[in-house]
């Protein structure tokens, strides 16, 4: 019986030591994975201006990535789109749509007017800025902007990110 205890006791301590080592390695891996999987938000800032010919020219001015998480996703119901609105599509390298957002016409925004009471009026601008935000994904490689017009949808901007 003493021989059994003499052989079992070192085995018991050795196996507990191995479990402790394994737990340390697992906690290190968990710490590395939480650091690398922080939520990020990407902001795309665009400028739009009307040219002399009446066409719109859109340029991507800046792309910013910041830590954080979107509280809610923006709805992008194309059925509610009006003439002049933009549909922004963020796609992967193969063109598969990952995120879609609707942006109201930035060159003709509705503004509050205080003339004999409070009202809303459409203002016509020659240039404007607008932005889009989305949760960061390595899959997103390209941005496409489609304009809704009376004659249908027109692709007005495409760029790799």
Give the helices and strands, then pairings:
Blueprint: H1 2-36, E1 40-50, E2 56-67, E3 86-91, E4 97-103, E5 110-114, E6 118-122, E7 127-135, E8 142-149, E9 152-160
Antiparallel strand pairs: 1-2, 1-7, 3-4, 3-8, 5-6, 8-9
Summarize the structure in words.
- Strand 1 (40-50) and strand 2 form a beta hairpin.
- The protein has one helix and nine strands; from the N terminus they run αβββββββββ.
- It has two domains: 1-37; 40-160, Immunoglobulin-like, CATH 2.60.40.
- The relative contact order is 0.18.
- The strands form three sheets. The chain has a four-stranded antiparallel β-sheet, with no helix packed on it. The chain has a three-stranded antiparallel β-sheet with strand order 2-1-7, with no helix packed on it. It has a two-stranded antiparallel sheet with strand order 5-6.
- Helices cover 22% and strands 45% of the residues.
- The protein is an alpha+beta fold and 161 residues long.
- Mean pLDDT is 81; it is low at 31-35.
What would the keywords be for this entry?
single chain, Immunoglobulin-like, 45% strand
């Amino acid at each position: 019986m003493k021989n059994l205890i003499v052989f079992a006791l070192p085995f018991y301590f050795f196996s507990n030591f191995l479990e402790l080592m394994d737990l340390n390695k697992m906690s290190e891996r968990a710490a590395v994975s939480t650091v690398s999987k922080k939520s990020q938000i990407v902001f795309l800032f665009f400028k739009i201006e009307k040219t002399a010919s009446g066409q719109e020219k859109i340029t991507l001015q800046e792309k910013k990535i910041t830590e954080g998480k979107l509280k809610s996703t923006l709805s992008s119901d194309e059925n509610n789109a009006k003439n002049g609105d933009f549909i922004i599509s963020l796609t992967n390298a193969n063109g598969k749509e990952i995120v879609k957002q609707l942006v109201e016409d930035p060159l003709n925004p509705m503004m509050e007017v205080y003339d004999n009471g409070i009202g809303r009026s459409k203002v016509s601008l020659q240039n404007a800025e607008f932005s889009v935000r989305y949760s960061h994904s390595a899959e997103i490689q390209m941005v496409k902007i489609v304009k809704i017009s009376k004659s249908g949808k027109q692709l007005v901007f495409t760029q790799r990110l």
